[in-house]
Amino acid sequence: MIDFWSSLHPVVQGLIKGLAVIMVIFPLAGACSMAERKVSAWMQGRPGPNRAIVPWFAWIPFVGTFLQRLGVFHLMADGAKFLFKEEPVPGHVNKLYFALAPAIAMMPALTTVTVVPFGAYFNSAGEAIPLVLANVDVGLLAVFAVSSLGVYSLILAGWASNSKYPFLGGVRASAQLISYELSMTLSVIPVFLWINAPGTPGTMSLAKVVEFQSLPGFWGGTWFVFLMPLSAFIFLVSLFAETNRQPFDMPESEADLVGGFHTEYGAFKWSLFFVAEYSHMIVGSGVFTLLFFGGWNPLPWLPLADLVGWLHHATHAAWTLHPLFVGVLSLGIFLGKVVALIFIFMWVRWTVPRFRYDQVMKLGWQKLLPLAIANLIFYALAIALIQKSA
Amino acid sequence: MAPALFHLFALLTIASAVGVVANKNAVNAAMSFLLCLVGVAGLFVQLDAYLLAFLLLLVYAGAVVALFLFIIMLLDTQGRQNWGFKKLSTFTSLVALGLLLTGLGTFVTRGQLDAPNPNAAGGVGAALKPYAYQLFTTYLLPVQVMGFLLLIAMLGVIVLSRKIDGPEDAK
Q: How many separate domains does chain A show?
């Protein structure tokens, strides 16, 4: 098995790995759209989607009806509907860019996954090896760079639709995404100032950030959300704005722009925008987890290595130390945190009223950006003092 | 693999650069510019200059071209697509092209490139720390001057975009 894998061409290996990750992200994003409907329903005290069921599942007692009530089959029904529906292309659109926009939405969303580590295992020397498609030194910078290209899908969709509501949505989207990118980038700098202490080889790798949060001792095991709560807060607010989630749903704003940039879209193209939006949410939540919530470490001050050690101590079984088991365990912990964050995204949607457009701009430029700069200056001074005395 | 990728990105860069100049539709031109930047970023990655590549994407592709598109959309240039090149601009671009070709010609015939140093650990920007160190020591003055220029530009924009309602606001 291993020999066969190593005998493959590196390009083929990369393709297989990439496809494997996409095959997880794509259905996960679809499932998020289903979860969104179900969670919204629970928060509003209604049952939500609970009808669709595959005939054979209806014959299974209890489990079948439980899955039906949970609405899991609506996901398949929705997917099939979007695939087989008629594709309406209005006559007044710019055909090339109209078709290109949903594809451009998907590409950055799926490309950013390559540099996001999603788990770790321990080699025979006890070092943590991150599970990641490309463990590059620029790490987070690559995520920011590639995800910033996502704005073109909204601009092009709004412009190519050649009608008023999508156009307004596209203009709002470009202004909003560019404004909040600044605060987002500034808010993570303290994290990297902290981990790039003098004398260490400089890095912006996300795996290194997690490594710093799994060190032994009180300060080592502290998740960065406790050390830098304001950074985490600014990052989270910017993340909401960057993924067009309520309360920052200006590009879409169903209430006043019909559907914003995707008003003229239907069928599979429309659903691609949504899969892209949820992929952005998944990757963004993943980056937030890695930066501030300890990545694949189960609890603050409890690194993954300790948990595996305890499990081995309790069961005395050799499989608890197997890289495969550790990898799957870390992946499960990481995905659990990501799913919890996505739930918070949905929770906020039904808790905070949406902003007006001028409020979004005012918040971004006059509140969040100065706050991010002040935060950066404070942490730059504090970190310089602490690392000098240490 | 690497030469094939180099040719791919080089071709993409040149073709889209021609597209920027030749396209009459402003949105097409801006999108060609975006492709051109992506091509240049690809070339930077091949030179192991990952930092430069991603900064180029982040700043130019992610923000500057998005602002170009934003302006094009706001001005709505659809109505007057058919303006051609003016005589003056044709003349100056021909002069610029001549200068560029002369420069390239002298570089090809007389220029000398140092042999690549096999001991060097990647190009500048492969590792972040030496790059940042250079910025804060050797190139400190250029960085400061650039920052000052940008500050002046920002102040200019603030002054120009200020709303002037009455004569007392104009002070």
A: 1
Residue B121 lies in a domain: no
- The answer to whether the peptide bond before residue A247 is cis (omega within 30 degrees of 0) is yes
Contact between residue A261 and residue A121 where contact means Cβ atoms under 8 Å apart: no
Q: Which of A39, A94, A113, A43 is nearest to A71 (CA)?
A: A39
Q: Kind and range of the H or E element at A121?
A: strand A119-122
Residue B146 neighbours by CB distance under 10 Å: 11
Cα B19 to Cα A73, A375, B15, B96, distances in angstroms: 47, 43, 6, 18
Q: Which A-chain residues 138-157 have CB contacts (< 8 A) with chain B?
A: 138, 141-142, 144-146, 148-149, 151-152, 155-156
CB spacing of B58 vs A148 below 8 angstroms: yes
Contacts of A174 in chain B (CB under 8 A): 66-67, 69-70
- Provide the residue count of chain B: 171
- Which range of residues forms the domain containing residue A337? 92-389
Within chain B, how many helices (H) and strands (E) appear? 7, 0
A367: DSSP letter? I
Of A136, A145, A178, the CB nearest to B66: A178
Is the domain of B1 the same as that of B75? yes
Q: What percentage of residues in chain A have a pLDDT greater than 70? A: 97
Residue A343 lies in a domain: yes
Q: Nearest by CB to B128, which of A137, A146, A152?
A: A137
Note whether B150 contacts A: Cβ–Cβ < 8 A: no
Respond yes or no on whether ipTM tops 0.90. Answer: no
pLDDT at res. B125: 47
pLDDT tens digits for range B128-155: 677 778 888 888 999 999 999 999 998 9
Q: Between chain A and chain B, how many beta carbons pairs sit less than 8 Å apart?
A: 75
Residue pLDDT, tens place only, B7-38: 999 999 999 999 888 887 888 888 899 899 98
C-alpha separations of B127 from A190, A254, B12, B37 in Å:
20, 46, 27, 22
Task: Check pLDDT > 90 for residue A377.
Answer: yes
Sort out which chain A residues have CB atoms less than 8 A from B55's CB and list them: 141, 145
Contacts of B34 in chain A (CB under 8 A): 152
Whether B62 and A181 lie within 8 Å, measured CB to CB? yes
Chain A within 8 Å of B34 (Cβ-Cβ)? yes
- Number of domains present in the structure of chain B: 2
State pTM to two decimals: 0.85
Q: Out of B34, B63, B73, whose CB is closest to A171?
A: B73
**CATH number of the domain that residue B44 is part of:** 1.20.120.1200
Burial class (CB in 10 A: 0-12, 13-18, 19+), B128: buried
Give the domain extent around B73.
Answer: 1-79
Query: Nearest CB to A178: which of B31, B67, B74?
Result: B67
Contact A181 B34 (CB under 8 A): no
Token duo for residue A230: 């304001």
